[in-house]
């Protein structure tokens, strides 16, 4: 019974957050629609290639040692900074007007604390492995410390969210100002074009920040729900 109560609390928690943060599925569609807007894409198509944007921004951030690699997968739309190899993997996002801000976002990741980034990498893997282990033990009915593991899993999730949220929010809030500086210095776009791009960045960021936080919380809460569900069925 106590496991069902835990599941109920988790679900209520997610529902309350969804209401408070005004999370809507339609917002995701809105971001995609703006991201692939033809008029906005035509404006940013005047800007240099993504790799050149990265090189310029890294120089501006005094961090030119970062390696740049363009993804060979045409379907890959997710750029990322890999702390272990100090590499920015540039996705195939040439047809999205957000690419300037995305490059700024990844370049900002590259100047964040390496200790924090590496800890996040190793910790997130340990967290996931721990989750898998306690689930397998519970399925095999070999878990003697069920509630203790439930408590530990919750604490691990809170730590994971705190670290990952800090890393992402830091880059997300600084990306637009950096992208703005870049466009002003390049002088490729008119003031009107810059403002149009930046205004739409603001719309996307307002949605993306809360969606990113909510997704991270769902990721952690879902693990607790799955583990509690296994316990309620197999014990």
Strand arrangement across the biggest beta sheet: 1-3-2
| Binned strand content | under 5%
> Termini separation (Å)?
11 Å
Cα Rg: 21 Å
**Structural class determined from secondary elements:** mainly alpha
Mean pLDDT: 93
Low-confidence stretches: none
Q: Give the ordered list of helices and strands.
A: HHHHEEEHHHH
Describe the biggest sheet?
A: 3 strands, mixed
Shape: elongated
How many DSSP H or I helices? 8
How many strands in all? 3
Description:
With 235 residues, the protein is mostly helical. It is 73% helix and 5% strand. It has 8 helices and 3 strands; from the N terminus they run ααααβββαααα. The chain has helices at residues 2-20, 25-35, 38-44, 50-60, 99-110, 114-139, 146-186, 191-234, and strands spanning 67-70, 80-82, 87-90. A 3-stranded mixed β-sheet has the order 1-3-2, with helices on one face. A hairpin with a 4-residue loop joins strand 2 and strand 3 (87-90). Helix 4 (50-60) packs across helix 5 (99-110) and helix 6 runs parallel beside helix 8 (191-234). It is elongated, with a radius of gyration of 21 Å. The termini are close together.
In short:
The chain is mainly α. The protein has helices at 2-20, 25-35, 38-44, 50-60, 99-110, 114-139, 146-186, 191-234, and strands at residues 67-70, 80-82, 87-90. It has a three-stranded mixed β-sheet, covered by helices on one side.
């Amino acid at each position: 019974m106590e496991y069902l109560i835990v599941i109920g609390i988790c679900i209520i928690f997610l529902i309350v957050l969804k209401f408070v943060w005004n999370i809507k599925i339609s917002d995701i569609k809105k971001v995609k629609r703006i991201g692939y807007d033809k008029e906005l894409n035509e404006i940013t198509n005047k800007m240099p290639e993504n790799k050149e944007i990265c090189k310029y921004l890294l120089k501006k951030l005094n961090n030119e040692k970062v390696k740049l690699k363009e993804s060979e997968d045409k379907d890959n739309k997710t750029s990322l900074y890999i702390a272990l190899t100090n590499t920015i993997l540039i996705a195939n996002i040439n047809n999205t007007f957000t690419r300037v801000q995305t490059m700024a976002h990844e370049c900002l990741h590259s100047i964040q604390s390496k200790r924090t980034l590496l800890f996040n990498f190793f910790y997130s893997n340990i967290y996931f492995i721990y989750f898998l282990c306690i689930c397998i033990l519970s399925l095999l009915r070999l878990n003697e410390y069920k509630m203790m593991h439930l408590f530990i899993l919750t604490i691990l999730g809170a730590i994971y969210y705190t670290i990952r949220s800090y890393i992402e929010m830091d880059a997300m809030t600084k990306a637009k100002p950096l992208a703005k500086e870049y466009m002003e210095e390049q002088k490729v776009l008119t003031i009107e074009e810059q403002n149009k791009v930046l205004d739409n960045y603001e719309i996307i960021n307002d949605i993306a920040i809360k969606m990113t936080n909510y997704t991270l919380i769902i990721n952690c809460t879902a693990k607790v729900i799955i583990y509690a569900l296994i316990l309620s069925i197999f014990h």
